[in-house]
Design a protein that fits this description.
Blueprint (H helix, E strand, L loop, with lengths): L26 H4 L30 H19 L3 H12 L1
């Protein structure tokens, strides 16, 4: 999933009219999704992803968001040359 990015709409022009039903995933759609399927979404969400899907085990967008936070943290640590400090801290707290 992704969301309709209305922030890119022309602020001075006519606002496009979106039929959110055409761009949404609902609890009813879960019935059509394979048992092995996954639901991903970059967040934040608007009307395109029904909160009723949040507790479904195929909804992995909360994990996706958390993993994104850790990868951004790792990239920042790498950019500033702090990987060794993090590794050292982690190794010291394993004991």
């Amino acid at each position: 999933m992704t969301r309709v990015q209305t922030e890119w709409d022309d602020p001075h022009g006519e606002k496009p009219k979106y039929n959110w039903a055409d761009y949404s995933f609902t609890a009813e759609d879960l019935q059509k999704l394979k048992r092995t399927g996954v639901i991903m979404h970059p967040l934040p969400r608007r009307q395109e992803l029904d909160p009723a899907c949040d507790n479904d085990p195929r909804a992995v967008y909360w994990r996706q968001m958390r993993n994104g936070m850790w990868i951004r943290s790792a990239l920042i640590a790498n950019i500033f040359g702090r990987e060794q400090e993090i590794t050292h801290y982690y190794m010291m707290n394993l004991k």
